């Protein structure tokens, strides 16, 4: 079979202007795996409230981090694709779940090369309804509708792969080398608590407490919370961090429903109030820097920390197009291609 790979990331507005941001947010927030409430309620919330209030503020946030050559997420993802292309033996394309770089376009690019089988590679270390799952579902819809003869296989969540942990740990170590810090905060994108329970395949294991994530269960295959805490655990072991020098939190909550806690902004504030003067923050739910890392963490998080008495706030960049990450991703692709 002629094989190819489709890398898929989140997506971005085409520009940081309110009109484009509104269009992007409309597609993103109307996804039933992002806001998982009945269609009538989601429509009322998104089109009746959010899209009439949020685009202007979101556009202002995008403008703060927008690069001269475009959206950081898109630019970084393109650089990653081009570097990986040089190290693999099969065609490779890039798509986004939301926005103009659609999954359909990505699959079409590969089908035009007469490919028969595609490895769908969601660029998320952990599985979540609002990230990996929505990519898989959308790709299946497009395949059935437009490419019925194309076989699609997906790359599983790689949060606990030892080689990934090594690359992530080395990236953190490289950033913090010769830098003074007292605490490392591992901040992951938040999701509503109900998402965790909805994807509990045992229907009984998830309690959203410390014990369930630390107790072995087949539910962990689709438990975002467990997978986040596992990344923290594995990296902290690799870096030989003392328990009191690191913690885990969740950012980017939306609405009034319970989301995964502790919240990142509250944690930054608490650490500063407790006397932490120098802290580092890493965002392992993303492999590419984006609005949530460059504006919410590197700007807003830093502001909170300093307002509360903190002094040095070190942000560890995502893996982006880091050479070790490029090499690892390329190896995974080549192994899949060779049937290993």
How would you sum up this structure, described in words?
The chain is an alpha/beta fold and 340 residues long. It has two domains: 173 residues, Rossmann fold, CATH 3.40.50.1400; 155 residues, Rossmann fold (3-Layer(aba) Sandwich). The chain contains 13 helices and eight strands. The strands form two sheets. The protein has a four-stranded parallel beta sheet with strand order 2-1-3-4, sandwiched between helices. α6 links the parallel β3 and β4. α1 runs antiparallel to α2 and α7 crosses α10. The longest helix has 18 residues. The two termini are 15 Å apart.
Topology:
Layout: E1 3-11, H1 18-29, H2 39-53, H3 55-65, H4 72-85, E2 92-98, H5 103-111, E3 117-122, H6 129-146, E4 151-154, H7 162-176, E5 183-189, H8 193-198, H9 210-214, H10 224-238, E6 246-251, H11 264-273, E7 278-282, H12 291-307, E8 312-316, H13 323-338
Parallel strand pairs: 1-2, 1-3, 3-4, 5-6, 5-7, 7-8
Helix pairs in contact: 1-2, 1-3, 4-13, 7-10, 11-12
Question: Briefly, what is this?
Answer:
The protein is α/β, with parallel strands linked by helices and 340 residues long.
Order of helices and strands: EHHHHEHEHEHEHHHEHEHEH
Q: Mind summarizing the main beta sheet? A: 4 strands, parallel
From the spread of the alpha carbons, the general shape counts as: globular
Radius of gyration: 20 Å
User: How many runs of DSSP E, i.e. beta strands?
Assistant: 8
How far the N terminus sits from the C terminus, by CA atoms, comes to 15 Å
Low-confidence stretches: none
Top-tier CATH class of the largest domain = Alpha Beta
Total domain modules:
2
What share of the residues lie within helices? 40-55%
- Report the β-strand fraction as a percent range: 5-15%
Q: Indicate the mean pLDDT.
A: 95
CATH level-3 fold name of the largest domain: Rossmann fold
Task: Count the DSSP helices.
Answer: 13
Structural class: alpha/beta
How are strands sequenced across the largest beta sheet?
A: 2-1-3-4
CATH architecture assignment of the largest domain: 3-Layer(aba) Sandwich
């Amino acid at each position: 079979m002629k094989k190819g790979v489709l890398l898929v990331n989140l997506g971005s507005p085409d520009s940081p202007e309110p009109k484009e941001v509104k269009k992007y947010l409309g597609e993103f927030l109307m996804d039933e795996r992002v806001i998982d409430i009945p269609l009538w309620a989601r429509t009322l919330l998104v089109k009746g409230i959010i899209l009439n209030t949020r685009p202007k503020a979101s556009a202002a946030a995008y403008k703060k981090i927008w690069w001269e050559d475009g959206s950081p997420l898109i630019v970084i993802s393109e650089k990653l694709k081009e570097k990986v292309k040089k190290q693999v033996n099969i065609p490779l394309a890039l798509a986004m779940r939301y926005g103009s770089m659609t999954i359909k376009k990505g699959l079409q690019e590969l089908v035009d090369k007469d490919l028969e089988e595609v490895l769908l590679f969601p660029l998320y270390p952990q599985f979540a309804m609002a990230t990996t799952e929505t990519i898989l579902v959308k790709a299946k819809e497009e395949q059935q509708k437009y490419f019925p003869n194309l076989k699609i296989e997906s790359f599983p969540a790689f949060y606990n792969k030892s080689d990934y942990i090594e690359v992530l740990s080395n990236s953190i170590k490289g950033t913090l080398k010769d830098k003074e810090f007292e605490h490392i905060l591992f901040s992951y994108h938040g999701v509503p608590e109900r998402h965790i329970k909805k994807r509990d395949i045992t229907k009984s294991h998830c309690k959203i407490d410390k014990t369930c994530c630390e107790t072995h269960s087949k539910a962990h295959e689709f438990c975002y919370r467990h997978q986040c805490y596992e990344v923290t655990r594995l990296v902290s072991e690799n870096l030989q961090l003392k328990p009191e020098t690191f913690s885990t939190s969740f950012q980017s909550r939306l609405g009034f429903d319970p989301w995964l806690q502790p919240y990142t902004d509250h944690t930054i504030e608490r650490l500063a109030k407790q006397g932490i003067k120098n802290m580092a923050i890493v965002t392992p739910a993303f492999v590419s820097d984006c609005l949530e890392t460059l504006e919410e963490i590197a700007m807003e998080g830093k502001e909170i920390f300093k307002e509360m008495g903190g002094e040095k706030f070190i942000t560890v960049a995502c893996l982006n197009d880091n050479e070790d990450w490029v090499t690892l991703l390329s190896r995974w692709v080549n192994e899949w291609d060779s049937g290993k």
